[in-house]
Design goal:
- The structure is a homodimer of 366-residue chains.
- By secondary structure, the first copy, chain A, is α+β, with helices and mostly antiparallel strands.
- Chain A has 6 helices and 27 strands.
- The termini of chain A are far apart.
- The A-B interface holds A 73, 76-77, 80-82, 102-108, 266-267, 269-270, 273, 300-307 and B 73, 76-77, 80-82, 102-108, 266-267, 269-270, 273, 300-307.
- β9 (103-107) of chain A pairs antiparallel with β22 of chain B, so a sheet runs across the interface.
Chain lengths: 366, 366
């Protein structure tokens, strides 16, 4: 194989597929990027067997062929090359030479035939969402995807379509839940899939903020395929039935407050100064007489703060892990947020009137 | 004590003195910042017994007094407070209350009397250098100060004045030496002091890029005191006699090359891809026929690169640890650098014609 490409194009393509390189693996071929110029275009592919990413790069194919190159070495090398034309050439022994200006570099590489192509995914039902919207709904929900949970389902996020065009995304761990709903432009058949959290985190790094162009998503029983720009992402889905989040949500409440989001976020952030690994204390909110009192005491010291709120219903005193509140308040864009409380042991609900977003945060008994 | 100050002034002052807070200590008082409003101005001081920093902050003294507050907690807290007025008040039990907008915070604090003031340093002979120049000479030499050397002198940097106005700064470790010379505006008595590398690294973070204002330095037998803006820095000096660097420098050479600094730096940077902890290889430079050939081979792969140079004298083949070359080439501002070689085992000298800077890099036998 011999190809000629531009350094910046090459670097961009490598950084896209690099997201599917595993952090550690016992199979050296999984640490490689396949560069394939066999079929009239130059593609780069990485595949960790759970997530695979393929992207097309512009460039000239002098001699068709393919080769697998150690991904992190290739990324570092191309970044360090001058902004110029790069020639990549392989010989019959699957060794690779990269030439750029005055530099000739032999890079570690393997036979391309050893590399697993992305699985074939039937492209039957396409769900289209703009880059921007997909990136936003991931940002607004991915923080509550469970990490290292023994229940595999909690490590993924539910993507659900119902009532033709209602699209709902749900993530939850043992302490909280995030629900984000949007209305799609077109109608679709009902579907439910659980996408691994890792997949969502990686793809949100490679999709743009573009509001005009769509990411096309195709769901099958075991896989989701996403297409955007010159890139194709294929991820395994998580098998099983996602928790019924509707059961957790109650329309009933005894206390409602409207509060400036930024002020509450900053007060919660200050309260974390009094929480240590060895001394976990709740921050206690006392809602009374149009005021929310925020109080925390620990061996480090104490903080006491009053914020005025719009209040409806009963007085309440409730404790939280401030970090959980902060994660939620950070992803909301509204200037004012509404908090709904039932009592001191039921989860607090943070949502807007349209219920575009619903967040549940479990309190701490104190 | 009761003082009122502005959040940004407070934050700025804390971040200056924070540079003298030790990373670990068994003496809790050393982790504190002393806030002293006893003498008609508000000063903040931190002192790790080797390096001490004091700075004056503007603000209103309602009741004079002093208090020692845990430094990192205070820095985090003030950063998280709204941009507004802050009131700091202590009671008779040395507990401290910080009030800002709606927030009242009790912070961990200790009796100010436990705190060690900065040592008194006689201000006899003042050496004045602009902020910018001092920052630059530290940047251009501090990288070769020895770290964890058993010979304590190597962990410091020589500051020397001779011939009235010749100021020379020298640092060296086992593999290289950096020498930087400037001519001072005024005349001074001869002096030699060894300043700890840690002191130089910390003060270069708090001095500005200002070319108009001077840092005033006062040297005594055991200490250096530096004054700039509202800040005073006192550091212990390292005792002993610094190596005579003149002995190491030879005017004699057999090969001289002039080369584009950026091209050489980038080639050296690429060559590091082939150096691993477990497999340290030299990069080999072959200088011949107006060309410098840069070659490295390791288990990872190999690189071969040719750069054209202006050359004088004999051909030479010499090996280096590319990281040492990179550190040196990075701090030089000239577009073209001159490299002088004696043979394959003597250090290579990199200097300009005026010898404002002289760097020695020891080769690797290959």
């Amino acid at each position: 194989m011999k190809i000629i490409c531009n350094k910046n194009d090459f670097s961009k393509a490598i950084n896209i597929v690099l997201k599917a390189i595993p952090t550690n693996t016992t199979m050296p071929i999984l640490n490689c990027i396949l560069i394939d110029a066999s079929f009239g275009e130059i593609t780069l592919t990485a595949n960790n067997m759970e997530l695979g990413i393929k992207t097309v790069m512009s460039g000239e194919i002098v001699t068709p062929g393919k080769i697998a190159i150690e991904a992190k070495f290739l990324a570092d090398l191309v970044r360090k090359l001058p902004e110029n034309e790069i020639t990549l050439e392989t010989d019959d022994n699957f060794s690779t030479k990269i030439t750029s200006e005055n530099s000739v570099i032999d890079v570690p590489s393997k036979e391309g035939a050893d590399f697993s192509y992305l699985p074939d995914v039937e492209k039957d039902n396409c769900v289209a969402i703009s880059h921007f919207t997909l990136k936003e709904i991931i940002r607004q929900t991915a923080f509550s995807i469970g990490i290292n949970e023994s229940n595999k389902i909690l490590t993924g996020e539910l993507f659900e379509i119902s009532d033709n065009n209602k699209f709902k995304v749900v993530s939850l761990d043992r302490f909280r839940a995030s629900i984000r709903k949007i209305t799609l432009a077109d109608d679709y058949a009902p579907m439910k899939s659980i996408i691994p959290g890792k997949t969502l985190n990686e793809i949100s790094k490679i999709i743009s903020d573009d509001t005009d162009n769509d990411v096309k998503m195709y769901f099958t029983r075991n896989h989701v395929l996403m297409e955007f720009d010159e890139t194709t992402v294929v991820s395994r889905l998580i098998e099983g039935e996602f928790m019924d989040v509707n059961q957790m949500i109650s329309k009933m409440y005894n206390t409602k407050v409207n509060i400036n989001r930024k002020e509450l976020l900053e007060a919660m952030d200050r309260s974390t100064l009094f929480v240590k690994e060895s001394d976990i204390r709740p921050v206690i909110l006392t809602i009374k007489d149009g005021t929310i009192n925020i109080n925390i005491e620990s061996t480090t010291g104490k903080m006491n703060e009053n914020l005025s709120v719009e209040m409806e219903g009963q007085d309440i005193k409730i404790g939280f892990n401030p970090k959980l509140m902060i994660d939620t308040l950070r992803v909301i864009d509204d200037e004012t947020v509404s908090l709904y409380f039932i009592n001191a042991i039921a989860p607090c609900t943070i949502k807007n009137d349209n219920e575009d977003y619903i967040y549940l945060v479990t309190p701490i008994n104190f």
